[in-house]
User: Fold this.
Amino acid sequence: MGAEGILFAGYSLFLLAVALGLDRLALHSHRRSETYRTNGFRFRGDLDAWECPEGEFLRRIQIDDARRLVRYRAKAAVCNACPAKGECTDSDDGRELAHPMDAWPHSEAGRFHRGICVMLAALAAVIAAIGLARGGNTTELTALAVVLSLAGALTARLISSFWGTPSGFPAPTPRGAVEARPAPPRGSG
Assistant:
């Protein structure tokens, strides 16, 4: 295998490794952020509420379609009387948690990071394809074909998050036109 083929294949593989690494790092960062933000709290799907470490509930108060968030808040009177308030919140309005409506790959940050990864993987495929088009010996062409197929498969896997965007994902809104709607009224219970 010639030096040129090694460079084409090596650089393509390097770009694929960077794309995979960046994707994993972004997901890891997102998960750590979520864990830190909700540390000690547990979501109760049956009640559509977050339960704090002291056993109180943060109820849904708002659905923010523009920011794709659901906001939950505890009663101010309960939080203000709580012995753990100092470690939990400095708000006199009660502890609030904002929970994203979309899974990480469908969030704005997830789509941004995935977009960068898709571009890196696509660039790796282009470089491998150029190496194939330049020709070379059989070993070189085989190696570049393998790298090209890996780049194509990774690009397709990463781009699936763009195809799989939830159907309710809102159209971009002009800056300053943020509008939030209150949560629907809950039944007594």
